[in-house]
Amino acid sequence: RKEVEQDPGPFNVPEGATVAFNCTYSNSASQSFFWYRQDCRKEPKLLMSVYSSGNEDGRFTAQLNRASQYISLLIRDSKLSDSATYLCVVTFFNAGGTSYGKLTFGQGTILTVHP
Amino acid sequence: DGGITQSPKYLFRKEGQNVTLSCEQNLNHDAMYWYRQDPGQGLRLIYYSQIVNDFQKGDIAEGYSVSREKKESFPLTVTSAQKNPTAFYLCASSAMRNTEAFFGQGTRLTVV
């Protein structure tokens, strides 16, 4: 089983739609969670961190379910500019509180927003 | 401006040659990483380093080598033992307690 798994999609939605992505992780010691966005032939860029209580940034909402070991990303009112690959990232801390340093990426979910 | 710089952006290698990809950061980050991305695929970890003069193998380290002689630099050598080196290589760095990672712009390596 992969450490981090995502539905690769592709998701093809019209402008204004709401779309949700899920990501599951296998290591219950995982502590930090992020969503990254990657445009075609570019480097990934941080979209948002995911906090235990859930967090929102404009049209984007991220949630964490530790019991079921998954994180989600909800995009409301989709824009053409949201078309990209969305990557979930999981890492974990050692007992000393510093990171093991191994960021693990899911394979990415492709989103295409059309007019 | 603080950031992470990879060079070159494009690199062509003949079969049997070793090549070294550069990664420099001025963010004062302790941790640095190398990832490989193939078309339509996610990122796979090659090597990572949490401190100077120390590094660990990732999931696909065979055919690659790294060094971490300085905090700001983490070069990756793609050796002739790497049988399928054509890919997009991404370097990243992060602070130890805030593990958000920042990426360089990547190097596209092509074997000719």
Write a concise keyword list for the protein shown above:
heterodimer, A: 115 residues, mainly beta, 5-stranded antiparallel sheet, 50% strand, globular, B: 7-stranded mixed sheet, 4-stranded antiparallel sheet, 0% helix
**What distance separates the N and C termini of chain A?**
37 Å
Strand content of chain A: over 45%
Low-confidence stretches of chain A: none
Q: What is the percent of helical residues of chain A?
A: under 10%
How would you state the average pLDDT of chain A, rounded?
89
Residue fraction in strands of chain B: over 45%
Q: What structural category do the secondary elements of chain B indicate?
A: mainly beta
Shape of chain A: globular
Largest interface (CB within 8 Å) is between: A-B, 25 and 26 residues
Report the major sheet of chain B: 7 strands, mixed
Count of DSSP H/I helices of chain B = 0
What value does the average pLDDT of chain B take? 92
* Spatial separation of the terminal alpha carbons of chain B: 35 Å
